[in-house]
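During the first year of the project, the team set up a workflow for recording each protein of interest as an amino acid sequence followed immediately by a discrete structure-token representation. This format lets reviewers and collaborators read both layers of information side by side without switching files. As required by the reporting guidelines, we include two representative entries from the current panel. The first entry is reproduced here exactly as it appears in our internal archive.
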Amino acid sequence: MYKSELDKHIQNATISNNFVFFGESSFLIDRYTKIVTDVADASILSFYYDEYDFNSAKAHLSQGSLFGDRNVLIIKSDKKINKKELDVFVDYCDKNPDNIFVFAYYGSEHKTYINAFAKQSTLSVRFFHPKDFEAQNIIAQLAAEKKVTIDKYSISHLLQIHNEDIALACNELDKFVVYDRAVTTKDIDNLVFGLAEINIDEFIKKILNKKDFKEDLLSILERGEDEIRVVTAITSYLTQLYMFNIYIRVNGAPNALEILGYPAPQFIVDEKANLSIKIKPTLFYKLHELLLTSELKMKSADVDKSAILLSTLIRIQKLL
């Protein structure tokens, strides 16, 4: 099934209560996971990547709620899950229509799930990267939900600034919520930090996701950024991720106020939670040790700080 078919099911209220989402667009997987699990007063259990535990997941769906709430199970993983285990969750949803189950698969082995649930009630949906017009429509819809007035030309401009990355473009909408007028392209130019001017957080995420970062690094250094500051920024970012990781392991779900000391936008919380849980605690130690050692080397006299920085970033990606 594709996104258009799922949209029709949602529109016609013929939607199932168990789903497998996969494909090329992580943004759409996240978006539709939120849409189908947006249930008031639900009892939600979410597993992020390596946190998945079959027995805990099964117990959550099998138990009856004392307060009549609906039981919702969300599993987010870049690793495949045995279909026999998924069938157990589907069966609990078939027996109890108040249950909701979503398996959000972020891996690349899409063929595994294309026809795996053809004879079951499960809606198995593959999401491709949105085309230009589709991306604009999604942003327009999200803007309307946030009560942000923005026309199609400004939306197109926003996407162009972010090299057609819909996730980044959608995240920018929160900046315009306070506006009591239509957003213009000039407003976007004033407030949006595009990929053309590399944002240090986006640069760090590219490193952690093992993507090519060399052009971004060159742009940052040409802009006059100090190599030591780049290292300390990465160290600080990893420290935050480690705090997310530990909190999620102990409490099951992130809480920005308790982790960071201030409330953060939900998309930032979700993003850092997803990144943090991919890294094991022992690896956090190795990454911090590498970064602190590199910072100390850079503070020595007569060294090539750029070479040390590049070597450090390559080693980080090898460790991940």
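The second entry, processed by the same pipeline in the following quarter, appears below.
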Amino acid sequence: MHTDPHSFRSIAIIGGGFAGALTAIKLLDRTEVPLSVTILEPRDELGRGVAYSTTEAVHLVNGPASTFSLHPEEPDHLVHWLAENAPRYGWTPPADIASSFPPRYLYGTYVRDELRRAVSTARSGSSFRHVRASATRLVSAPHRIEITTSEGETIEADEVILALGVFQPELAPREAAVAAHPGFAASPWDSTALDRLVDAQEILLIGSSLSMVDAVTSMEARGFRGQYRVISRRGQFIEVRRNATLERDFLAQGPLPTTARSLLSVVKAERRALAAAGKDWQALPLAIRPHILPLWQKASDTERLRFARHLRAFWDVTAHRAAPDSYHAVSNAIAEGRLGHQPARLLAMRRFGRLIAATLKTRSDTEVRSFGGVIDCRGHQLHDWRRISDPFVRNLLASGEVRPHSTGFGIDATEQGDVISEEGRVHRNISAIGHPLRGVAWESSSITEQRAQAIALADRILGKLTPLSLVAS
């Protein structure tokens, strides 16, 4: 029996942000047969997506460069790239590059340049194409998939990878009421909106995590000298990332917890033990992170949703801490008495001349206070595909090619990332990576998890191919 060496050799990746670009890199780097790779992405540059499209140098990655190599077999790859390339892209690295937190725009440039390198060094016969359009429709067949683009083009592929990234929700009524007000910034990454707030006397920051840090660093870099009032529903507040070391793998001491309550219990016990020994609690995420995937996959949907409702806010501020240079702007504002934080819930906003009047529900009272500016720092990410207005997502659901995950986070898929249709059929030639898999693998939005997913996905797809040298004559 002769095996066709060109079976499944054309691959279309829908989405050209970090996950899509990284998957293309791994496919082109690891293939032993000629491969045709197409990325559908309306942005001009691949590899940036939402996270790395910011142009502000004060927006930093929230981990040291030594941890963010695109190639785990070469842990110093990013460090070496920064040493050779960062100055010509406008950043002078410090002496200890490995411990530095480079700007996010520069990390996006690293991903972009690595994709260009992978394309230029790909196996002879391979091709790469960037289609500057969005997908609008997908029709699958057992051995071929047809994609229609927003430009009316039809693309056929043997394999399709959904790397759609994050979606932003529609503005809630309380934000929509002031959306056109010059003092309102719906995103901390809207440079034009932030420029308008420099002369405000006081700015309300809704949310107290990494997006809030971005807002403060951006405003301080613009010369803002007014007051910040930070609110969050649970009263959590971001902390600076410290150089903690792993103390012990406490979750490996016995069976993994299967409920949110039992997980909280063992984590709190370990935190008390660290405190008693005079150790830094920031060793906790180092110990927990390797177990996140099995913890999530062993849990029932009931427990997953319980975690999302009650523990997610605590996990977010535990796992996702701020780069020291970024946090310096926050700590300075606190020391100068210009930044205060309190637990409060935003009930409503309305125009009040040149100001915005916000109704806030605190633990003891309800107050109405006027601000010269309001920045929404909640870092909105809409994971429930049933609420996403994107035409392609709506079409995928309506056609039954995909179905929402039972938790409401992303879409249903196998643990390996093969997408599952509405009728429960596993697509063997449609896969997903990153944010669409949030219900399958909770931390599927971070660099390290997406890196592992991209490598495993590339190996699975390439495993279906037969090297030319092995084809029987």
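For the second entry, the following points were noted during internal review. The radius of gyration is 23 Å. The first helix runs from residue 18 to 30. Both points are flagged for discussion at the upcoming steering committee meeting.
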